[in-house]
Design a protein that fits this description.
Elements: H1 7-43, E1 46-47, E2 50-51
Antiparallel strand pairs: 1-2
Length: about 80
């Protein structure tokens, strides 16, 4: 038997648990950063007296016409 006392399997299970916890925490942090980015963009969406829709973080990078919609797309 490769792991007669089960120590390596136990350690592997613990590593997987720690990894899952870290992945969940990373998702919480990313969600918070996305929310802050959307708020930051919403505050800056008025350009030259005109109101533009803020860039959505989850949008596709290209529009229907194939042109790039980057971080400055709200200024077009």
């Amino acid at each position: 038997m490769l792991d007669p006392d089960g120590a390596w399997v136990d350690e592997l299970v613990e590593c997987e648990r720690v990894k899952a916890t870290a992945d969940a925490q990373a998702m919480v942090i990313m969600a918070g950063l996305c929310e802050r980015a959307e708020d930051w963009l919403a505050e800056r969406r008025t350009v030259g007296g005109e109101i533009y829709a803020p860039v959505r973080v989850a949008e596709e990078p290209r529009g229907r016409d194939g042109t790039w919609r980057g971080a400055t797309s709200h200024m077009r």
